[in-house]
């Protein structure tokens, strides 16, 4: 063995050895217990970030552990088309050549993005290999694979036929820069200071941050319990600049303490106002279009963007002395999670899924523990989100995604929904002139079907054997976006939960506990760390010291420390190997019989470590299992036992070899590369004798 473990020299060839051997593929047998993780699919077009590395480390530890326990283990990898995120990045590439999405028809733009994704997809997959992901690449899926698309279309058709899908004109969150709507879950709420304008509406004063929308006002609302305005209900307020009369109404949604307690009602551009407007059957006037420009206003404002319109309206209100005062308000404002632009709530025709029936099934499954949350706090959070979900806007006005299989009749204006095939005629009036909806599905709609869609479309038809899957392990920040929706649709379509356990992992932060971002300059590149210290070191550092569900404050020092741990194991093996080389020992290793006190002590400590690690891994307490391993190798084995055997190595050699072999097994899920290399050097009978498929030791 070399004097020091050189990860650069060995990791790539070890991974090729595993992959070529077929070790990543499950042996499906009725006698074997199935264990399955469907990999949360990384963006096909982006390199992995440090959060992905933690996810890979967590899942691969579980996969290797259960594989060694003799279970039929499937870790199914995939790639996500990632909807608006991928299109947004591609539009950035177009901008560099002075082009935009508007320069191409939809089919051409889709093909361009497709080619770009396929050209870059291998980067992400190669990085997964570099991190040691022992997933079955023969079963890899892409969210835009034809068979996946077919299942997504079938789901939409079933929802439509069951009365759970409708196309409605409702207020939605809209990004005028990205040109698409978003669900409420996809809107970031950022804190900021804005001007709070107190405006003269004749007999009443209102306060608003958005004077440019006054032309869309249809009423002023006050709380029925507010004695200040009880005498004004039923009278008329006057919109300044245009002098339009609007009624003063009462509604319990109005907060008496906010502003003046009088709320201008603009149903087309505010969610609360829309709800009040629906309840009181108020008209709807839109003054901002989907591109973010003013419409349906006095001519001087038409065509202005929102910012310029606000400035112009403010100036005119000031000239007419309609501004009573201006304060500063600190509040939350919706922002596009992708481009950070301010979200414009606006009336739009979209496809919606009625979530209430789906929510009922999900809540029941969680309450009955059909699906269990490893961290109880996330069960409470999941239930909270489910109980407060609104109907799900699943249509997006982008090219990159799965086109909604709906056709509109030009004669009767009714919609025909299919499983993807083009209908020959209108379902309602039998007319033949139909136009397909150009919208695409929300990427979360398609990915919420990922567990069963992947297993139903593999060559081996794995659904019957592996579904429900064993564990779902994404980061906790996508619990409302993805996890609860997978539960909802999984139960709706299969009658079963999609996974037995939800193991949500925390985020990776920098060494000071600060959220990692490019703007802060604290990004940790997982591939750079892997190249510098090795995959084993990075993986071990990512699970070290904190529970899976907690955030991990990662530092280069921590990664370096785990590199030292891998080297410690290597040096232990070198010590054992020195005597082995002299005596040409290699082959079957059995537990030795000994009466030596030191031998008996290390064998007992090994047994206790195996027992403890097994219990901890079964409970998903990976950090505690890693600490048990670290303490045994560093303290019990290396610092204590090896020091005591130097004077009697020949006598102790059978115990040394036995303890080393068993130690490699329990170390393998955490340090797969260095442990496999030591195994090949010291214990493998031939090239097919791999540690990755060896048996997890049993404690007595």
Automatic annotation (TrEMBL):
Q: Which reaction does it catalyse?
A: tRNA(Val) + L-valine + ATP = L-valyl-tRNA(Val) + AMP + diphosphate
Query: Does the record bear Transferase in its keywords?
Result: no
Provide any one GO MF term from the record.
ATP binding
Q: Which UniProt keywords apply?
A: Aminoacyl-tRNA synthetase, ATP-binding, Cytoplasm, Ligase, Nucleotide-binding, Protein biosynthesis
Identify the Gene3D superfamilies for this entry.
Answer: HUPs, Isoleucyl-tRNA Synthetase, Domain 1
Q: Where is the Methionyl/Valyl/Leucyl/Isoleucyl-tRNA synthetase anticodon-binding domain?
A: 599-698
Per the record's keyword annotation, is Transit peptide included, yes or no? Answer: no
GO BP, sorted A to Z: valyl-tRNA aminoacylation
CDD domains, A to Z: Anticodon_Ia_Val
The Gene Ontology CC terms held by the record are: cytosol
Q: Name one Pfam family in it.
A: Anticodon_1
Task: Name all Aminoacyl-tRNA synthetase class Ia domain ranges.
Answer: 13-543
Quote the EC number.
Answer: 6.1.1.9
Q: What is this protein called?
A: Valine--tRNA ligase
What organism is this sequence from?
Answer: Candidatus Woesebacteria bacterium RIFOXYB1_FULL_38_16
């Amino acid at each position: 063995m070399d004097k020091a473990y050189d990860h650069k020299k060995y990791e790539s060839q070890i991974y090729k050895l595993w992959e070529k051997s077929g070790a990543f593929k499950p042996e499906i047998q009725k006698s074997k217990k199935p264990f399955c993780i469907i990999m949360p699919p990384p963006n096909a077009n982006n390199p992995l970030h440090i959060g992905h590395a933690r996810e890979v480390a967590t899942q691969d530890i579980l996969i290797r552990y259960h594989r060694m326990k003799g279970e039929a283990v499937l870790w199914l990898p995939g790639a996500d088309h990632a909807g608006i995120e991928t299109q947004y990045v591609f539009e950035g590439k177009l901008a560099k050549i002075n082009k935009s999405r508007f320069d191409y028809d939809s089919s051409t733009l889709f093909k361009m993005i497709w080619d770009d994704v396929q050209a870059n997809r291998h980067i992400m997959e190669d990085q997964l290999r570099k991190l040691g992901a022992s997933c079955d690449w023969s079963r890899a899926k892409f969210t835009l694979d034809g068979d996946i698309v077919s299942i997504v279309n079938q789901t939409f058709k079933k929802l439509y036929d069951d009365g759970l899908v409708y196309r409605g004109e409702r207020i939605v969150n809209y990004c005028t820069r990205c040109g698409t709507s978003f669900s409420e879950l996809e809107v970031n709420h950022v804190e900021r200071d804005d001007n709070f304008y107190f405006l003269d509406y004749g007999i009443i004063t209102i306060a608003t941050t958005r004077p440019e929308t006054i032309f869309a006002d249809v009423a002023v609302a006050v709380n029925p319990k507010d004695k200040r305005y009880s005498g004004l209900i039923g009278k008329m307020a006057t919109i300044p600049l245009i002098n339009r009369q609007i009624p003063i109404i009462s509604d319990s949604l109005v907060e008496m303490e906010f502003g003046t307690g009088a709320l201008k009602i603009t149903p087309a551009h505010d969610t609360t106002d829309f709800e009040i407007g629906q309840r009181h059957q108020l008209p709807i006037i839109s003054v901002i279009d989907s591109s973010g420009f003013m419409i349906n206003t006095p001519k001087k404002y038409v065509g202005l963007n929102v910012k310029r319109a606000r400035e112009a309206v403010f100036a005119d209100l000031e000239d007419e002395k309609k501004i009573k005062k201006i304060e500063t308000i600190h509040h939350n404002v919706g922002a596009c999670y992708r481009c950070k632009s301010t979200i414009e709530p606006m009336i739009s025709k979209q496809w919606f899924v009625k979530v209430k029936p789906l929510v009922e099934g999900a809540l029941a499954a969680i309450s009955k523990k059909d699906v269990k949350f490893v961290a109880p706090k996330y069960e409470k959070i999941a239930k909270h989100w489910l109980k407060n979900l609104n109907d799900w806007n699943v249509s997006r006005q982008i090219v990159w995604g799965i086109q909604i299989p709906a056709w509109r009749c030009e004669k009767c204006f009714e919609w025909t929904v299919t499983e993807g095939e083009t209908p020959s005629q209108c379902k309602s009036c039998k007319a033949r002139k139909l136009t397909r909806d150009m919208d695409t599905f929300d990427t979360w709609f398609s990915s919420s079907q990922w567990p069963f869609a992947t297993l139903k479309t593999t060559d081996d038809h794995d659904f019957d054997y592996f579904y429900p899957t064993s564990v779902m392990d994404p980061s906790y920040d996508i619990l409302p976006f993805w996890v609860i929706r997978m539960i909802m649709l999984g139960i709706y379509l299969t009658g079963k939960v999609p996974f037995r356990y939800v193991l949500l992992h925390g985020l990776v932060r920098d060494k000071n506990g600060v959220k990692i971002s490019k703007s802060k300059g604290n990004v940790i590149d997982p591939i750079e760390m892997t190249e510098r210290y090795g995959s084993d070191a990075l993986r071990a550092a990512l699970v070290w010291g904190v529970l899976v569900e907690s955030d991990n404050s990662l530092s280069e020092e921590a990664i370096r420390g785990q590199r030292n741990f891998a080297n410690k194991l290597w040096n232990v093996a070198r010590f054992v190997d020195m005597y082995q080389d002299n005596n040409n020992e290699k082959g079957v290793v059995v537990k030795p019989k000994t009466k030596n006190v030191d031998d008996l002590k290390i064998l007992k400590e090994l047994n206790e470590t195996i027992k403890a690690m097994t219990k901890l891994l079964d409970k998903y307490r990976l950090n505690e299992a890693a600490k048990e391993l670290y303490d045994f190798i560093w303290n019990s084995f290396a610092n204590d036992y090896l020091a005591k055997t130097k004077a009697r190595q020949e006598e102790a050699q059978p115990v040394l070899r036995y303890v080393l072999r068993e130690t490699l097994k329990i170390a393998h899920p955490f340090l797969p590369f260095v442990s496999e290399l030591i195994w090949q050097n010291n214990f493998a009978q031939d090239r097919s004798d791999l540690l990755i498929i060896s048996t997890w030791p049993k404690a007595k």
